Amino acid sequence: MDEKEAEQHVGYLLFEVSRLFKRRYEEMSKSFGITLQQARVIVFLAQQPDGLSQATLAQAVDSDPMTISGILDRLEKRDLVKRVQDPSDSRAKLVTLTPDGHELFIHVRNIKKDLFDQIMSNLEPGHGEILKASLRNIRDQLIEMSPENKEL
Question: What does the H/E/C string look like for the chain?
Answer without folding.
Answer: CCHHHHHHCHHHHHHHHHHHHHHHHHHHHHHHCCCHHHHHHHHHHHCCCCCEEHHHHHHHCCCCHHHHHHHHHHHHHCCCEEEEEECCEEEEEEEEECHHHHHHHHHHHHHHHHHHHHHHCCCCCCHHHHHHHHHHHHHHHHHHHCHHHHCC
